[in-house]
Amino acid sequence: MVSSPFLLPLALLLSFTLLFVFPLNQSHFSFFGDLQDIALFHRATIRTSHLVVVGSGSGGGVSSVSRLGITSNPKPKIAFLFLTNSDLFFAPLWERFFRGHGLRYNIYIHADPSVELNQPGGVFDGRFIPARRTERASPTLITAARRLLAHAVIDDPLNLYFALVSQRCIPIHSFDFMYNFLFKNSVTSLRSFSSKSTYKSYIEILSDEPNLYERYIARGATAMLPEVPFERFRVGSQFFILTRNHAALVVKERKLWRKFKLPCLGEEPCYPEEHYFPTLLSMEDPQGCSHYTLTRVNWTGCWDGHPHLYSPEEVSPALIQTLRQSNSSYSFFFARKFSPEALTPLMEIADDVIFRD
């Protein structure tokens, strides 16, 4: 068995060797990218095994090493993971959301390289990670999310929560509201954060959807067996907020991934990104998950698998209040899906409504 310090160099050496030996067709580029992903996920798995003290306040001189170097009395951070195949239309609104909180968050962006994007500056500058092409109804969206998680895990040990959002998601609460909810206004360490039941992942996990069986057999009647029997198969939103220990679980997992990366027999009803994460976390740590999402989506009048698209005319203070409401004691933090033209009216009510909790 190859020891961990030599796995990454060996994988890269093999990749470059194959690059010169074989013609450069799409399958070889895919293989080269798969090797890069394996090396990335391996590095992230190693990084999650290193525990770092995180905390502040009256503890007396706690320090840690983050991506900015050694810091005294560091704050735990939220890593915001943007998964996009178009411009980040709502970057100005997110800039307003992040304003004044630079020591409590990081940003990572996976942008489909087959699409030419206008890269925003400000807090988004330099936060694009090496990306690969994504395609709807394919496992590429799973690997993109895993890539984001791995980069965020490696980049900063102070990243304790990981929020996956899309380019059409908007915040509907202030940063402080979200931060205080996730961390319970408490001081913690990576060790205690990973073990305390109060810190959960917020991911939708459903077992009673009407077309669940059709989704399960999308690759063939027995393709998921024996690793994933139907009674363990789950569905949920592709957008979530994971704890660091669950992010570590995702990037090192192999067994279920071998099943979920199998091609579907048709596009409908194959949405692997809505199945892999809920199924994995439900099988491995159901008690550590909320089983609900913090991203509000309106499926009324959905078309071709897409949710309702909010237009500029629909944006109002009343809409924001409605989007926050849920059937439980929690409040939604994000909402989708908004048209790019909705940015102007959203900015007009940002300070007085959206970020006023």
From TrEMBL:
Subcellular localization: Membrane
Record keyword Protein transport present: no
Keyword Signal: yes
Molecular functions per Gene Ontology: glycosyltransferase activity
Signal peptide feature range: 1-27
Superkingdom of the source species: Eukaryota
Predominant location: membrane
CC annotations in GO: membrane
Membrane topology listed for this record: Single-pass type II membrane protein
Keywords: Glycoprotein, Glycosyltransferase, Membrane, Signal, Transferase
Name under which the protein is recorded: Uncharacterized protein LOC111487264
Organism field: Cucurbita maxima
